[in-house]
Amino acid sequence: MSWFNKKKMNEQDFNSEEFIDEIENEFAVNDKHRFNEEGQRIDVDPSSEKGEKSAKVKSSEVTKLENELKDVWTRCNVAETKLVEVQKRFDEAKNNLEKETAEMRQRLTKTLEDRAKQGQFNFLMALLPVLDNLNLAVSASEKDFSFEHLLVGVKGTARSFEQALMNVGVEAVPSIGSEFNPEFHEAIDMTEIDAEGDGKITAEYSRGYKFGDKLLRPARVQVGKARAQSAGE
User: Fold this and answer.
1) Count of H helices and E strands in the chain?
2) How far, in whole angstroms, is CA 29 from its chain's centroid?
3) How far apart are CA 112 and CA 36, in angstroms?
4) What does the pLDDT look like over 137-164, one tens digit per residue?
5) pTM of the full predicted structure?
6) Angle between the N-to-C axes of helices 46-143 and 147-167, in degrees from 0 to 180, rounded to the nearest 10
7) What residues are paired with 226 via a beta bridge?
8) Beta bridge partners of 35
9) Distance between CA atoms of 2 and 30, rounded to whole angstroms?
């Protein structure tokens, strides 16, 4: 029963707490109104309360997402900083390696050049005695016109020159009496000999030389060929 239908009440009834609570409950449940500070009734949209609650819920979710986004952004910045630092160290290591490689290449090139110059120097030093022998042979021939003295001087010069070649690693290719080898010998002509000498070198026209495993020039030789036996033999 509404309070409007109640009997006439006295002033004490109006001031009772029970009466006040009844009025507040009655308005809160049946009449969707509220009172402002001046005591005036105001309309309250129930959906607005839900909207406020929804906005609060939505705002908390947005805040949570924003916080997560900030955390992801922070981690990305940290990762990018680390990546930049790693790239910087990589570039420094690369530059140092290129610098060390270039310096090593220069040192190796200089070492090879020095070795080549030293080899040339040694060879020239080995040739100087040959030149000395030639000068002695020329001086001796000017004083003594005999063929024997000239021959001795030329032979001495040839021996000293061969020795100079041997000092730098040059070796003579074996020829006379050895088996013909097309890798080291060049056959100029052939001559008939006994069967046991077939394929062997019988004469040398120019000596061959090799330097280590490389052939400087082949020996130009004469090769023996077994005589053909007659029908009677």
Assistant:
1) 4, 8
2) 85
3) 104
4) 778 777 777 777 778 878 888 888 888 8
5) 0.48
6) 160
7) 193
8) 41
9) 10
Cα dihedral value 158, 160, 164, 165, nearest 10: 30
Question: Distance between CA atoms of 193 and 191, rounded to whole angstroms?
Answer: 6
* Rounded-to-integer distance, Cα 201 and Cα 184, Å: 12
Higher local confidence (pLDDT), 202 or 25:
202
Q: Count Cβ neighbours within 10 Å for each residue of 43-70 and write b for 16 or more, e otherwise.
A: eeeeeeeeeeeeeeeeeeeeeeeeeeee
Q: What does the pLDDT read at residue 154? A: 82
Q: What pLDDT does residue 124 have? A: 83
> Domains in the chain, start-ordered, CATH in brackets?
172-233 (2.30.22.10)
- CA-to-CA distance for 182 and 209, rounded, in angstroms? 14
Q: What is the pLDDT of residue 39?
A: 57
The CA-CA-CA angle for residues 94, 96, 97, to 5°, reads 65
Measured in degrees and rounded to the nearest 5, phi and psi for residue 232 equal -65, -40
Confidence of residue 188 (pLDDT cuts 50, 70, 90): very high
DSSP-assigned states of every residue in 117-175: HHHHHHHHHHHHHHHHHHHHHHHHHHH---HHHHHHHHHHHHHHHHHHHHHTTEEEPP-
